[in-house]
Task: inverse folding
């Protein structure tokens, strides 16, 4: 009986030693569809990124490469990564865990006759008020970039 009481009494202590997850936020996405030609969407995406004072750090033409390897009618799939080092420094000083959100990334792909443009948004509901404020300022810019690229 005494052993059982000791075990139950120690359970909260044992549970408090468990490592909490570094990030428990849910990643939210912003997505729009357009009937605009795919290449125009990519060109407008590059313009929008530059107009928001970001630099493109990478562009993966996944669909194109798969077609070049023999999958003749494979649809378009692209990822465009971009960053602003001043903003990157700011958010990393807020929390080093924000590296998980970098660089910013927009994906474009074809689906059911439409072009999809999608980006992940930064969490605005963390337990870090400074990160929440940064995200609240950054997310509208990410949405504007996506909207501009898809706008007809």
Result:
């Amino acid at each position: 009986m005494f052993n059982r009481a000791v075990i139950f009494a120690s359970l909260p202590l044992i549970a408090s030693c468990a490592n909490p997850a570094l990030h428990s936020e849910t990643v939210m996405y912003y997505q729009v569809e357009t009937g605009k030609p795919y290449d125009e969407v990519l060109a407008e995406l590059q313009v929008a990124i530059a107009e928001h004072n970001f630099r493109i750090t990478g562009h993966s033409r996944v669909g194109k490469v798969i077609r070049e390897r023999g999958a003749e009618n494979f649809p378009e799939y692209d990822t465009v990564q971009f960053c602003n080092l001043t903003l990157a420094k700011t958010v990393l000083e807020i929390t080093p865990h924000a590296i998980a959100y970098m660089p910013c990334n927009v994906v474009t792909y074809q689906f059911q006759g439409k072009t999809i443009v999608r980006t992940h948004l930064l969490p605005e509901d963390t337990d870090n008020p400074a990160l929440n404020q940064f995200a609240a300022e950054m997310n509208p810019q990410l949405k504007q970039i996506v909207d501009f690229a898809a706008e007809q």
In short: The longest helix spans residues 129-150. DSSP finds five helices and five strands in the chain. The longest strand covers residues 104-111. The two ends are 74 Å apart (CA to CA).
